[in-house]
Specification:
The protein is an alpha/beta fold. Helix content is 46%, strand content 13%. The structure holds iron/sulfur cluster (SF4).
């Protein structure tokens, strides 16, 4: 059976490893040793895959510019699943990235039918307050899609490079799909490329931390980034078996091609519509030259966006988290006492009787309480390993373990909700008017 990923479908993705084969997502494991002070989602393999994240690591490790961008659809309560993405954005900001957060109100309006007023209220009172409370700094950028002319202009231009067949193949659009839904997909591509516009510092590696269900946006946007660039670079083989690079364009003025010929590292020859470059040792030098000329002649110049993919949290009762079932998730705005009750009622990996649990041990891998500690509540890896071990060997019983997790959850929510109130006072620092 072929895995179909559609960001608007409710189906969960059970077999992550198939994404590597079916969609060309690369495993994240190999990159971990390259990352200085990895966050807990990286350390604990919650982030399992990526596209081109090596470019972002290179920028992080060498103090070169890079960005992080993600969006939130203002359609419900902000919960622990959103916190994971917010934590990832904030971590990249701390690592030196320029951080962008788009509130996807156009998507909420076109796909969910939520009014503009409700989009704004939910965007601020749920998502933006928690984002700031978790540590997002004012140097970053928070905006509503519908209020950004830059996003609209870019989305319109991206639309010239996208066609219905391609969008349908990626998103499963049908004849019933409303046109604004399609436009909102282009707005999200514009969000993703926005950090690389010249107003935002020009081309640079940009990572989009997402769940695997959002991969269609990433694939579409990577393709569009290539199509928008003034030049494309092809690696070609000569008759003698040596390689050369052909820098090609259908739209570039002849002066731009001449400039590529002048500046390109290696021996360059100018032809109608392309420049061929021989004996280039350093592809990155050539790429740098091409980007410089693209910007000089007013063209677009985008590095195809990178992405990281994280596992989803399961629902507290097992199965999926669902916004229509408040007992399946913990919202960051939940009354702290109600979170205690939710944790105490949640599905564990414990055995039917205490005796059995002492003899066989629990199964933390099948326990939603352990999952909350793994994703959010226990920062110290040794502490988490101790809980895992004591559960598995039958020393720790679920009652005590749940009480511990519930206490941590309550402490977190009390503090977070206080920080949210402080954040309300600071909205103006982020250019947000209530
Ligand atoms: Fe889950 Fe804790 Fe019970 Fe183990 S002891 S199954 S981690 S609740």
């Amino acid at each position: 059976m072929n895995v179909k990923i559609n960001p608007w479908s409710s189906s969960s993705i059970q077999d992550y490893s198939r994404l590597f084969d079916d969609f060309g997502i690369s495993p994240f494991n190999d990159l971990i040793p390259e990352i200085k002070s990895p966050n807990r989602y990286i350390r604990r393999n919650i982030i399992f895959g990526h596209r081109s994240y090596d470019l972002v690591i290179d920028a992080m490790n060498n103090q070169k510019p890079f960005s992080v961008m993600s969006g939130f659809m203002p359609s419900g309560k902000v919960h622990l699943g959103h916190k994971m993405v917010m934590d990832e954005i904030i971590w990249h900001q701390k690592m030196g990235g320029d951080a962008f957060v788009g509130i996807a109100d156009r998507e909420a309006y076109s796909v969910r039918g939520i009014s503009w007023e409700m989009c704004r209220e939910t965007g601020i009172n749920e998502y933006i307050l928690s984002l700031i409370a978790l540590g997002f700094e004012p140097e970053g950028h928070i905006y509503f899609q519908s209020e950004s002319q830059q996003i609209m202009d870019l989305a319109f231009e991206l639309g010239v490079r996208a066609n219905f067949s391609e969008m349908s193949a990626i998103y499963g659009f049908s004849g019933e799909t409303n046109i604004s839904h399609m436009i909102s997909a282009l707005c999200q591509s514009a969000d993703i490329l926005n950090p690389q516009l010249s107003d935002n510092g020009g081309p640079k590696p940009t990572v989009i931390p997402v769940g695997a269900d959002q991969d269609p946006h990433i694939r579409l946007t990577r393709g569009l980034a290539h199509k928008m660039n003034m030049f494309r670079i092809e690696k070609r083989e000569q008759n003698n078996g040596n390689f050369y690079f052909s820098v090609r364009s259908k739209s570039a003025p002849s002066e731009a091609l001449k400039e590529i010929k002048e500046l390109a590292p290696g021996d360059a020859k100018l032809f109608e519509g392309h420049v061929d470059v021989y004996n280039t040792d350093d592809f990155n030098d050539l790429l740098e030259t091409v980007r410089q000329v693209e910007l000089e002649f007013g063209g677009y110049s985008f590095v195809p966006p990178a992405s990281t993919y994280h596992r989803f949290m399961s629902g507290l009762q097992g199965g999926k988290m669902s916004s229509s079932s408040p007992d399946s998730y913990i919202a960051l705005t939940d009354d702290p006492e109600s979170s205690v009750k939710k944790i105490k009622r949640s599905k564990t990996g414990g055995r039917i009787t205490l005796q059995e649990q002492k003899e066989l041990g629990g199964i933390p891998e099948e326990c939603s309480v352990f999952e909350i500690m793994l994703f959010h509540l226990v920062e110290d890896d040794r502490e988490l390993a101790r809980i895992h071990q004591e559960c598995s060997n039958g020393k720790l019983m679920c009652g005590k373990c749940k009480a511990y997790a519930a206490e941590l959850m309550k402490e977190f929510l009390v503090e977070h909700q206080q920080m949210r109130e402080n954040a309300r006072e600071r909205l103006h620092e982020y250019g947000i008017k209530e």
